[in-house]
Amino acid sequence: MKFLMYALTITVGLMAQQLSAQTEQNSKMVQAEEKSKLEQMDLKSKNDSLSYSMGVLMAESIKQQGLEDLDIDVVMKGIKENLAGNATIDVATANQMLQAHIMEIRKMAEQKNAEKGTQFLADNAKKDGVKTTESGLQYLVIQEGDGATYPKATDKVTVHYHGTLIDGTVFDSSVDRGKPATFGLNQVISGWTEGLQLMSVGSKYRLFLPSNLAYGDRGAGGAIGPGSTLIFDVELLSIE
């Protein structure tokens, strides 16, 4: 994981907007609004906007890596001196230092999340209706289905789901998007593969996944940290 490359390599997708039906007057209104926004931020040129955008993306990268405690003034000093060709630390050394520090942060986060998850699951197992399988998967039946049609691990299923962390933070939801998801049951995290096979068509279960049945110590993106226990409300709509 090379933070420097991550921070400075930006893939910008320029979405082509088809405005053939828009009148010239509407186009001018849009341009005026954009100009007003730039002036309010004191961004008076295209280069100002690009420069500001670079800062926003670098800041987002810093947050995602858990590096909010960095001294931003020193970060700016490193940028300026590297651009001028007189940086005190070379790129290879900088990458090594940052990778080592990020790994340390991830290990601490994993331990913290794992401890919270273990306590949550221990308390959750005592609640009415919650069942625990041999693997450690916990589930709560919200609604039973037809009781006749169950998926196999090799089947493709269509579901609606709503995923949260144990603190209630939503990280993904087909329900919120208003569009069910279809996937092979052997192509997802193991907690899903196991949990969905307990459900018949029409069922709705709440699945509680220990981190080893979810994304483990690697996490997933910025929302799901390493060692995270996950909760999914899943409705099995159909089996292919």
List keywords for this structure.
240 residues; alpha+beta; 2 domains; seven-stranded antiparallel sheet; 7 strands; 18% strand
End-to-end separation: 39 Å
CATH class assignment of the largest domain: Alpha Beta
Q: Would you identify the regions where 5 or more consecutive residues have pLDDT less than 50? A: 1-21
* Major β-sheet profile: 7 strands, antiparallel
Description of the structure:
This protein has 240 residues and is of the alpha+beta class. It has two domains: 76 residues, no CATH class; 124 residues, Chitinase A, domain 3 (Roll), CATH 3.10.50. Helices cover 42% and strands 18% of the residues. Strands 1, 2, 3, 4, 5, 6 and 7 form a seven-stranded antiparallel β-sheet that branches. The N terminus is likely disordered.
Spell out the blueprint of helices and strands.
Blueprint: H1 3-8, H2 24-40, H3 46-64, H4 72-84, H5 91-124, E1 130-132, E2 138-143, E3 156-165, E4 170-173, H6 174-177, E5 181-184, H7 190-196, E6 204-209, E7 230-239
Antiparallel strand pairs: 1-2, 2-6, 3-4, 3-5, 3-7, 6-7
Q: What's the quick description here?
A:
The chain is of the alpha+beta class and 240 residues long. It is built from seven helices and seven strands; from the N terminus they run αααααββββαβαββ. Strands 1, 2, 3, 4, 5, 6 and 7 form a seven-stranded antiparallel β-sheet that branches.
